[in-house]
Design brief:
Largest sheet: 6 strands, antiparallel
Pfam families: DUF2867
Radius of gyration: 15 Å
Protein name: Male sterility C-terminal domain protein
Structural class: alpha+beta
CATH class: Alpha Beta
Distance between the termini: 40 Å
Shape: globular
Number of strands: 6
Helix content: 25-40%
Number of domains: 1
InterPro entries: DUF2867
CATH topology: Alpha-D-Glucose-1,6-Bisphosphate, Chain A, domain 4
Length: 151
Amino acid sequence: MDNDTEEIHENFKFRFQNSPKIVWDRVLNIGGKTGWYYGTKLWKLRGFIDKIFGGTGYRKGKKSPDELQIGDQIDFWRIIYLDKESMKIGLEAEMKLPGKVQLFWSVGENFLLQKIHFDPKGKMGKAYWYLVRPFHYWIFWNMGKNVAQGS
């Protein structure tokens, strides 16, 4: 694989005291009226910026957590993977980016695994990711922590 298009992965693991079902329900409720458990105003700002550049923007809304299925939207994300029995879900960003971003959650017996995959488009995509990496790290880490710990 060409170094300019190498996928970038960020993985976070959060321990929790609640039952896995409670954490899974929080994952399924993310977005829409619930928000993103951390930085919802920043997600909305990102959506506004996306709209300016011709993207979908922050489409507030989604189906009921009980009705979610592959292909459904959650704000400016789309569900690309969903296995309710094994408590795993994957989302792909529909915003304008120099690459493709996917966000995955998996709930285990006492931990939440959150994975972010970024497949950059060339050097610009890679530069974008590394420029915003500290900000992304802060947002995604706090969001995952709050989902796991119920904050």
